[in-house]
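Box 3.1 A note on notation
Throughout this textbook, protein chains are presented in two layers. The first layer is the amino acid sequence; the second is a token string describing backbone geometry. Keep the layers aligned when reading.
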Amino acid sequence: MIDIVALKNKILELAVCGRLTKQLESDGTAGELFAKIQAEKAKMIKEGRIKKKKVLQEIKDDEIPFKIPDNWKWVRFAELCEIINGDRGKNYPAKSTLKKVGIPFISALNLDGKSVIEDENLLCMDEEQYGKLGSGKLQQGDIIICIRGSLGKHGKYPFDKGAIASSLVISRVYFAADIIGDYEMLWLDSLIFQKQIGKYDGGTAQPNLAANNLEKFLFPLPPLKEQERIVKKVSEVFEILETIDELQSRYLSDAKVLKSKLIDAGIQGKLTEQLPEDGTAEDLYAEIQAKKTELIHEGKIKKEKVFPEISEDEIPFDIAKNWKWVRLGDISAKISSGNTPTGGNKSDAYVKEGYSFFREQNIYNDGIHEEGLVYIAEELLETRVNSTVLPMDILLNITGGSIGRCALIPDDFTKGSVNQHILIIRMIDPRLRFYVHNCICSPYVQKYIKGNAVGDKEGFSAGRCKNMLIPLPPLEEQTRIVEKINELLANM
């Protein structure tokens, strides 16, 4: 799978480093553009339209993070635009006074990296409140940047007027605002901008960036014509990447459906031939029952009450003549859940080294995932006989969001234990485990599990698991089914 996010980050990096587009002599230089920007700012200061600010420190060679083209120029962010704070005075509107209609009062919650999100979180002020504000008033095309909390979150303002919350600032460009603003948005999206946030972030419990530090950020300024080409090129490439991302998502969704259909076809006998030399599932079932009786007599498993006969109206689909519908409990030596040691994480039950203690986050259809795996000492394991996991067991999650996930325990496993959210399923004949695992992963059984989960936490009980119907083929055909499913899934 292609990592679209990583590719987009790389494209943005190339864009603001001057490596995505050609540098043309006809573009002129960023130095000439910078002079025009400064002339426009000087004119506006003279006319009293903006305030004069202190001169920013000259950029030193050891500050420059990477080389840019010769006709580009490194500038301080505030040399490119005016950074405007929100009003923090007595006229700052209380949230309780804001309404759903009126003049937008923008917070970080309303920004999506491109523009302003128009949803139930967009609160507004009335004309009187807006009129009292001393600063932080928005114009169409302004770029809003968050400097407290969600540092760097941004968006271009699309409306005629509005105002910003105190956790935001406005970046307002006065020369060629549309072009420079679009390029600035790419810079704000780039990891190069994020790295500078990391340098200046002065937050403790809440991330915080002072507006006067944002003014110092280094900005790689290209000539105006190249800025236009960069924005156009990034837009074209991103459009292609988004198409790829959409196709990948569709493929993953389609692949998941296809995998489910393949497994369902497998356990319905549609992927394999039924061969006379395989014998019948009835013969296999008789062997399993004989073995079960033997294990009961030897005291290795407990005798359970007889399961009810399978009625015609219970059978969900037709199977081959040499197959047999059985209840999972009839072919299992054990189906039971575990329990969590007293205190769990808050006690000393878990140790650094010992026997695996499986929790639901460890159980996946493709096997045991070790992230978050904990261990218990042998002394504790010995007190948990009923929830001891052995090689060749099947573990099934029976509660919560991961209900229905199941994993095969490897043959070379020693022993371990499980918590109360997991069932241990142990076959009388371990050779059945691969086929039964596929059955449990099938849409047919998954629907049964979720449809029979009860209680606030949607729990699936051991009793219901024992009564679950399994379409049982002869052993040889089970092997062919599992091999065929594995072969097909490997090629997807």
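The chain has 14 helices and 23 strands. Residues 268-490 form a domain with the Adenine-n6-DNA-methyltransferase TaqI; Chain A, domain 2 fold (CATH 3.90.220.20).
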